[in-house]
Design a protein that fits this description.
The chain is mainly β. The chain has one domain: Sandwich (Immunoglobulin-like). The chain is built from no helices and seven strands. The strands form two sheets. The protein has a four-stranded mixed beta sheet with strand order 1-2-5-4, with no helix packed on it. The protein is elongated. The two termini are 17 Å apart.
Length: 105
């Protein structure tokens, strides 16, 4: 199950994860409720992730207008920032960040 942060959400904080868990986190770049960021016929051609020290980027990918990353690790009581930078078929580039709080679940 992907956990979404949609562009335009006022508080970019994902639901908490357990330090032993490996969860997928996703950014939806074309959600019509927030106004599509991608233009007609524009696609995401590259997606790069940067994560804070203390958590691990296990894998990542692109699925249509969504980018996702599987994250592991973390220390209970801390929050970690993840940043996704995309490049589109039209040559546009932008980044979005969110935080992942770590709790024993």
């Amino acid at each position: 199950m992907s956990l979404y942060y949609k562009i335009g959400d006022p508080f970019p904080v994902f639901p908490a994860k357990d330090p032993s868990g490996v969860l997928d986190y996703a950014f939806e770049w074309n959600d019509s409720r927030y106004g599509p960021w991608l233009q007609t016929d524009e696609v995401i051609s590259a997606s790069d992730w940067v994560v804070d020290v203390g958590i691990t980027l296990v894998s990542s990918g692109i699925s249509g207008s969504q980018t996702f990353a599987f994250i592991s690790g973390g220390t209970v009581g801390k929050s970690y920032r993840i940043t996704n930078t995309i490049t589109t078929s039209d040559g546009r580039t932008t980044s979005r960040s969110a935080y992942i709080p770590i709790r024993e679940l």
